[in-house]
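Predict the structure of ABC transporter ATP-binding protein.
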Amino acid sequence: MTFSRLRLENVGRRFAGTDALQHLDLTIEQGEFIALLGPSGCGKSTALNCVAGLLPLSSGRIWLDEKRIDVLAPERRGFGMVFQNYALFPHLTVRRNIEFGLRMRRLPKPEIARRAAQALELVHLEDQAGKLPGQLSGGQQQRVAIARAVALEPSVVLMDEPLSNLDAKLRLEMRTEIRRLHQSLGLTTIYVTHDQEEALSMADRLVVLRHGQVQQIGTPEELHSHPVSWPVADFMGCRNLFAGSLLTPAADRGEAAMVDVLGLRIEGTAAAHVETPGAVAVGIRPEDIEVVPVPGPHTVDATVSVVEYQGREFAVEALTGPGLRLHVRTAERLVPGDPVALRLPPERLLVFPGGADLPRPVAPLDEEITPDLPADAGAPA
Ligand SMILES: Nc1ncnc2c1ncn2[C@@H]1O[C@H](COP(=O)(O)OP(=O)(O)OP(=O)(O)O)[C@@H](O)[C@H]1O
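Done. Here is the predicted structure for ABC transporter ATP-binding protein.
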């Protein structure tokens, strides 16, 4: 079925008086790959199930072009679904599983055979067609589930954590496979995941949810480079997040903002409007911190506490005198105990509103320094 856009308008869902999802406004263009991303319990599956029709809405409407579809039963929406647990019939062969939905639709037999053969070919399972699901690997079973969904030639495919039961290597392979199918079949896909790397690598746009509310909607590049709130930054891999207080106000995104973090005066860039006086969150990615030979502008002194080898780079944890734990990625060969000057480029250090509710407060210094470090380790400059 062709359409131009799927539109979610103020979609909400309550369970026993508690909002699991609120005010979800989202327009999905035909052919887009959208990821719903967020930590456990943020409302991702609720959103997907509302679109699927498995959950009635508590508020809002869903439109497929000019047709209102939230009032339709799931099977009348024309969507395909792929779940985490595959949901295959164990007593039916692979081919029969794929044919099942087509038979339910009472399609002519030659059409059923043609579509099943095509779907099997798409997921490279032609030679497994006569097996039962129990005789297949997890990855193959998930391929069957995907084949079964796409055989219905759905207008939209909804996927709920389809790769979470697979091992790491297979997950990577299947990511590519799903993206390939999405592209080659011209599908429109809504994909639920809590894995930010998966979402970033697959989706055209991401919807980041927290506590049932949309935090930000954007392309992977937008969310990576311009997160508008600290939860989005946190979810996008910004491992260094600290509570601080703002010393100079910044009216808009992109303006310079001075912050105080545990007595350190640091210059950053406002990620959104921030006001004094006020608690802010300060964030910088490990790969944006530079290890420099000597202290200078925008540097902090720190002592290396942990070094992990990670392929071409090292993941280093360093502690500053006032007890700030910084995660740094560097090619420098450092060892625990090394004193380092770390440059925090102001344009990379983002200042977000509302740092008071940061889940990771700055740990006190005495919990952080390991006993074998020199007594003056991490002393402030
Ligand atoms: N059937 C239900 N009855 C009551 N509460 C529910 C029900 N389904 C979900 N919830 C609640 O709604 C909130 C959102 O749940 P949802 O399953 O959408 O989250 P999620 O982001 O998909 O999490 P996960 O990744 O763990 O599945 C949670 O607080 C959850 O406990």
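The domain at 226-368 is CATH 2.40.50.140 (OB fold (Dihydrolipoamide Acetyltransferase, E2P)).
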